[in-house]
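Repro:
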Amino acid sequence: MPSSALRKFEGPMMRDVERIIATHADMQAGSPGNMGLGHLTRAGVLFLCAAWELYIEEVLNESIKHCIQKSSSPEDLPKTVKKTISQYVRDSKHQLKPIGMAGDGWKTIYSEIASEWVVGLNTPKSHNIDQGFRTLVGIEKLSENWSLGAAVVNSFVEVRGDIAHRGSDAGNVHMSTLKNAYKEQITKCVLETDNALSNYIRNAFSPTSYPWNRRQI
């Protein structure tokens, strides 16, 4: 079974995108051209990017839960993650924050850092994703696992941003682009992310089992 984040992405999140695609096909009914249906394809882009962003947030939290489960103490965590937690505690304005590391308190602080990162993730581009997963999970340049390249994701997120800020002034997105390019590209990046994280977590705490099953692409 893949990660819970992937199952959610393929289930309720992608269901909305699929419904938009189906609605567009029904309304077009074989007639050529957009027929004023640009609002549907633009909505499809927004929903697809929301699915991508939510997947990233969910799989980060899921990865951290597995890191915690595989660690008897913070010393067992990847070096980069230990530095992140240490810096967070040192930078805290709460004078008693270091005491929170006692016992299992480090787990709460670790999760707290992740929650703050998720809240601050407004643009799910490669550099933001790489930074978050490097400091919080320890994996270097997660985006290098995307066979289509980081530029594909970044370009798609920019299209989403243009639509979100300019609405119909952003122009039309062809249904073929939404269905056969964006949807397939983002789905592939999700699968490759899921597999890469599963491999990384297993190897980082070797010898252990995979946190979730990898999916053949």
